[in-house]
User: Fold this.
Amino acid sequence: MNDTTKALTPDPANPPKPATRSSKAASRYAELQAAKPMIECRDVHKYYGDYHALRGIDLTIREGEFFSLLGPSGCGKTTLLRTIAGFEDISSGVVLIDGGDMADVPANKRPTNMVFQSYAIFPHLSVAENVAFGLRRDPRPKAEKAAAVEEALKMVGLTGYGTRAAHALSGGQRQRVALARALILKPKVLLLDEPLSALDRKMREQMQVELIKLQRQVGITFVLVTHDQEEALVMSDRIAVMFEGGIAQLDEAETLYSRPVSRRVADFIGVMNFLPATVLGEEAENIRVDVEGLGEIDIPRAQIAGKDDDDPIMIGFRPEAVNVFPEGQPQTAPRQNGGTIDEVVYYGDMTYYDVRLDEEDGTRSEPVRISMRNVFGRDIPCVGERVTVGWSPSSMILFR
Assistant:
């Protein structure tokens, strides 16, 4: 285990606090907890010459789960997906799918199918012919194969598109064809290698919802590779965040966002503000810190995360965890600090403010990012305006 991996390893004695779930989300979580393992990776290593691409991956993905591998380019997420698919041999370790060891099982014999980033649609074939391509060695009668194609097209919302030329489809439609072609073989696991990256933002957001619905409908295990944090948070039951060939944190989307186990994970998942902090004292349940721009705070030990050895001690909080109001306007936040608007960025439904918090010595800290939903009738403070920032210690994370 290298130094980076050690720094990112959660402390079993101090697990992150789970986020609050709705009853429906809690029900699905309970179902997945009880489901059997579908994919198991045990101490999986992969070398390309001297390059250590996968570093001791231990991972269990459950039956019926929508699971994402998330991380920056070069972190090993696609390599891990390809080892599960059988397109890459592992250097050591074990990969199990539905309880079976995949050591000597080629890709075409595994109970998986893969949707590639490029979709790999055959432009000279019709939509139906593309979807039926995987059935070319299927011994079933022609009529049964045709019925299976129609069922697969209906599943992805392309009923009536069978005779259309594949080259005449939009990007979103080509992606649906690729999904239908993969699902017609009824795999136990569907592997998705950044399937939405070529779509524009609006179509990508639409397809995210469609993929969630499709996964719930077919009930099989989906494993998604993506570098898009928002995409992973929206679509996944659980997410494995990867850096440098290892898993830094594996958690449900809500827990990953609200209780990251390290500063590196927090910085990668969404936006987080970091302010320098000094430890003043420790008690059984809390640690008292002095934070630049916020003052003294008691941080519960459940809100403590790790950091790399050379990083300073910091307090982190999400932009939506604090509020900003015109100075003098009454509010009920547990803690309040004065500040000055440095920048305002309007996004329609949201406005983002860069605010410099006041220091006790009269100086001002580096700006922090605060997001506020644009409720009808609420004033939007302007650049240079004095404001009050309201916050609660419960929204703070101590990285030490």
